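Support request, please re-run this one:
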Amino acid sequence: MEELSNKIKLFENRKIRASWDENAEKWWFSIVDIVKVLTESPNPRKYWSVLKTRLKKEGSELTTSCSQLKMQASDDKFYNTDVMDIEQLFRLIQSIPSPKAEPFKLWLAKVGSERIDESIDNAKQLGKQNLFPKQFNE
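Re-run finished. Output below.
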C-alpha cells in the first residue's frame, strides 16, 4: 500500500475516511468511521474495540486481516487507523445490527462501481484496446 490518495467519502452526509491504493487498485475505509455511521454510537472506537474482541473469540479471521493506515483525524493530525477493503467491510457489516446496513452496502457498491467506471474512462483516453487481463478477453 504505497501509492495512496486520501479522500473523504460521504454516506448520508457523514464523513468516512478512505484511501485509494493505486498499486492494489482498491479502496481502504476507516472502520471507526463506518461503525459510527452504522451504530450512531457516541464512542465508535470503543464499539469497534469490543466488537473486535468478540469476533476474535468467535474465531473470526476478519479482525486479523484488517490493516492500518495513517489517516487524518479531526485534529488534522495523522494517526494509524484500522481499515478494511470493500470485501472485508461487507463481512463486517453482517456483524453489526443496524437498519442502515442495507443502504450502506448499496453505497459501498456504488463507490466501487464509480472507481471501475473511472478506470475504464482513463484507459479509453489512453487508447488501450483491451481493458481487462488476457484471461477475461478469451
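The first strand starts at residue 4 and ends at 11. The chain has five helices and five strands.
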